[in-house]
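Example (one chain per record):
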Amino acid sequence: MLRGFATISFWADDLEAARDWYAELLGVQPYFSVAGPDGRAGYYEFRAGDYQHELGLIDARFRPAGHAAGPGGAVMYWHVDDLEAAVARLLSMGARVHEKITERGEGTGFVTASVIDPFGNVLGVMSNPHYLDVLAKAAPR
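Predicted structure:
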């Protein structure tokens, strides 16, 4: 039933600031945008990583009724090659620690951390050997 990660969406009260922050973090500009019914920017979308997954930024005025305005819910983790450097960079850009770097099972290679971006969203990063295995198998020979 679940075929793969398609898009993760983050909410931002200041959509333009969020666009600029994520453009700096990812090193690319959004490839897609949509205006809201009032003509103001409502959504920006980036492609990120080895599989060009989608990271969407949505103006918080379109948050569904009852959706919490602060950090909460599930944490989606992005694989990074150097977890400590990734966390340090995120913190230097104004994110704050949500969960410190944590080894998940001694010697397994699974290590996670998460931050809260300046817009209140939880951004997870991790070292994930399964990700690297899948990537190696998908690489053209």
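Caption: The longest strand covers residues 41-48.
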